[in-house]
Amino acid sequence: MKICIAYASAGRGHRAAAEALYAHLKTNYPQYETELIDALSYTNVLFKFIYANGYYFIGSHLWFVWSFFYFISFNKCVRLVFNAWSRFNSRKMIAYLKTKRPDVVLSTHFLPSDIAASLKRQSKLHTRLVTVITDFGVHPMWLSPQTDDYIVAGEHTAFRLLAYGIPKGKIKALGIPVRDDFLDTSPAREPGLRALLVMGSFGLRFVEKIAELLFSDIGLTVVCGKNKRLYERLARKQYPGVALFGFTDRMPQIMSSVDFVITKPGGLTIAEALASDLPMVFTSGIPGQETENAGILEAAGCAIVSGGIEEIRRICLAFKSDRGKLAVLRDNIQKVKKPHATKEICEYVCKGFTGAAG
Fold it and tell me: Rounded to whole angstroms, what are the CA distances from 59 to 10, 25, 54, 225, 267?
């Protein structure tokens, strides 16, 4: 069996989910030919630049523009135009799929899902198309009649797909895939708030202010990611007790060492935090999928949506002084999290093929 795992490098989550699936399949199903590809690498240079960098820049700096495009894309005509433009610029991806002819296309982004669905619609590709939705909400960009299976984060996402008219038999609420090593580091935490993780995706001044306000009250870990300027500025300030990381692949270990996380509400980050039994405070969500994620997790009692830095400080100090508040959020996480999503998705994809591992 040939499995093509496809993502688009627009944001971290789609790639991280695809890499988690790829690593699990290569380790546990070595009898299958498995490839991992970035669909944007099979497009022209200009399209890739606009698609990947435009997502980051507009989502980070021009929220009103992002919000406008996000909500007008609920219109079917707008989606048809956008998908046609994307396929026109993805001719190398189309040629790749027609030549490779995988038995399964396992997609973690709507771009490769749409390309594979278009080829199936034209009878130019005969493959099983499995789409893994990497948010807790769902936008109609993910949907296509040619998709055979939708893997979703949970029951809320499944209900949304049913409301869009997707047959129940096509929907599997298995969760969002995360790296296997998140399961190896799940800690037995003591009650209360002793250590806090701050994800550096908010920007320089926001994270600096959080560190300034909280370092003397709570142990802080700050992950700056690729923001070198933030890392250097915090390193110069040398706040006592603050553990500082740049871009790192040690997130399972880092999340296991803290009790709480302040983060933007991206689907993959949420799935990783849930797998690590970490309650969350959300702020600065990108309008659309991230704000929807935040609302769903807050309604489930696993997270709190915050309006700003001072409110975040009040929340953290309240959790420090009242152990029961944090315990309630942790108990609710047990009802929502799907830590074995990666394993179960791979089992589901491989089920029925000769020689599949159990």
Answer: 11, 32, 8, 17, 15
**Cα 263 to Cα 268: distance, rounded to the nearest angstrom:** 11
How far is residue 300's CA from residue 241's CA, in Å, rounded to a whole number? Answer: 32
Distances, alpha carbon 303 to alpha carbons 141, 186, 224, 255, 315, in Å? 27, 19, 22, 15, 11
Summarize pLDDT for 278-298 with one digit per residue, the tens. 999 998 778 888 899 999 999
Write the pLDDT tens digit of every residue in 261-280.
999 899 999 999 999 999 99
**Crossing angle of the two packed helices 309-321 and 204-214, in degrees rounded to 10:** 30
Close Cβ partners of 87 (under 8 Å, ≥ 6 residues apart): 94, 114, 115, 118
Q: Which strands form 219-223's sheet, in the order they lie side by side?
A: 242-245, 219-223, 195-199, 260-263, 280-282, 303-305
Predicted local distance difference test score (pLDDT) of residue 354 = 45
Q: Check: CB of residue 130 under 8 Å from CB of residue 113.
A: no
Q: Tell me if 86 sits within 8 A of 44, measured CB to CB.
A: no
CA 152 – CA 161 distance, rounded (Å)? 9
Enclosing H/E stretch for 28: helix 12-28
Distances (CA, A) of 58 to 54, 243, 313: 6, 30, 28
CA–CA distances in Å: residue 312 to residues 113, 198, 262, 285: 38, 11, 8, 14
164 token code pair: 């869009």
CA–CA gap between residue 313 and residue 131 (Å, rounded): 39
Q: How many CA atoms lie within 13 A of 276 on its CB side?
A: 27
